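Re: folding output
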Amino acid sequence: MTHIGIDISKATFVAAYPQKNGYRTLTFPNTPHGCLKFIRTLESGQHHCVMEATGNYGFLLLYLLHKADITVSMENPKKIKNFARTMMSVTKTDEADARLIALYGERMQPLPFRMPADSIMMLRQKRAVLRMMKKQRNAGSNLMQSMQVLPKQDPMARSSLEKVISALDRQIRRMEEDLAQTTQQEFDRQMALLTSIKGIGTAIASALIIATGGFTYFDNAKQVSRYLGLCPTIQQSGTSVHVRGNINRNGDEQLRAEMYIASWSASRHNAACKECYNRLRQRGKPKQLALIAVANKLIRQAFSVVKKGTPYQDGFVSDKPSTILTT
């Protein structure tokens, strides 16, 4: 399998082809015609394309490669950056990056990308636009509050800002309703299972479905927690350094924050989460750490109910006899 490194930009992308004495690079326009021209230089089963996750700019090529049955991997840019450090790379150009990505693919053998379903792609777009509108709404609200302390306010500026905020409120409500309705239609069973958990509402349920591709991208709950950046880091070296650090803060920042907020309610009303929270607090753990543990437990509960296909039973205790070890 020959690994082809691809460096994506807005207007073009550079592909690096391995040769006997290095790499040959070619530049293609980042358009449907340019992507198809590049694909014609490849053979299914012979080439494995590797690219960085660059948001929407690389998704057209990713989609067309998948349709052409060309193996493709999409890697976290942090992995490529750290790999460049290990190779002591000092050159930063599109051609050099493409060659580096090709070398990364050859050395690291990344897994093929799992293409999301069309419904997931549509839901991701809705969620991205909704997130953008909420940010704009918060910015407008903050500006409005800062203007209120001024000794004199311009009537036209205030009126325009109020209209913008009002329009954003209407669009946010419409998008939230459409997002919930679309998720309910496409993933009605998963939505019912997830919302059976105390602490998880429709908004978080739909966000979890979108982030996990309908719970098809991950094999266990721990992988989901790591993807969302809720897993603690560990620093250990010799006998002098042994620190269980903060969460890694990778992945979807908004969903991580929503899971943390959900832990507030779950720590009071979800029996298993409440027991986890109280146990950690009684052991002297900080409140924030206990809530993060609750957020992780919510993820484990969500993964479990979806994979088992049974609604969550709050306070359920298994009647399976425990194993007693005797010596």
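--- second protein (sequence, then structure) ---
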Amino acid sequence: MSAQNNAAILVQRRECGECQVCCIVPTIDAPDIQKDCGSSCRNSLQGGCGIYETRPEVCRIFYCGWRRSGDFPDDWRPDQSGIFAVLEVNTLPQFKPLAVALHLVGNPLKTVRRPDFIDFVIKNVRSDVALYLMLPKGKGMLSARLPLNNPPIKEAAARSRADVKNVLELLLKRLVDFGTAPYAMENNGHDVST
């Protein structure tokens, strides 16, 4: 998909503003640019990208879930909410074609206790959207990732928001306890990690 076509699918009146979470949190492993997870891109400047007009294609076509889907609340801009949602292609037949990875980049415990976060999880689990809870594990490391479409969440969603909160807290503890492993880049020669 071209950058122009991708920009056409954005939610109106939502702008990145000074948010640069996508310039820090994800690993970028493309032939023309590489960046470690948790490392700021060296082209990232206060309030924007220093090479915005000539940025690589992988950066031109990427928009976080908050920019791409009206299903996310208006106040979920990643730098303000601590929730960096990334839309992914889902290949599991029991779920809808689009999956959502919810990277907890702020205060993870506070985030999983937010009523709007819990309601988002309940709504999407009930709608058969594949959801993943993710926790960055440090510069150059793989993020911890757990699926949210599991029996404990489904059972809790049938009971109450408080029960879902309790399950999310247990899953967060599992994410925190996950060991760390470095990400091995497939490409090299254009590392912009700081």
